[in-house]
Amino acid sequence: MGFIEAEPAQAGADAELAAIEAGAQDFEPADEDGVTVFITEATDLDLVSRALPEHGFTVVSAKLGYKPKNPVDPANLSAEQLEEVEAFLGAIDNNDDVQNVFVGLAG
Questions:
Q1: Is the entire prediction scored with pTM above 0.85?
Q2: What angle do CA 90, 45, 26 make, to 5 degrees?
């Protein structure tokens, strides 16, 4: 999937309308920093990135990534399982050869 992080360039910019008009598949509403994530097909990443400024958004970053099909809710894991997952992810993240880690945990 393509993930585009964008900020509204003007007050009142509508993320839903921008997503539809620019050709994004979906969007995640703005977080506390005001950054909206637009989700695209991998092949549409550049096209949508170029279209968003026309709809009132400034692109902060655009990259390819993965979105889990069946995310796991951490609340469904025991404390021991969650600790094991966190330790594993920490070990992977500390490896110098690892550049990106994609996790299927929801939230």
A1: no
A2: 80
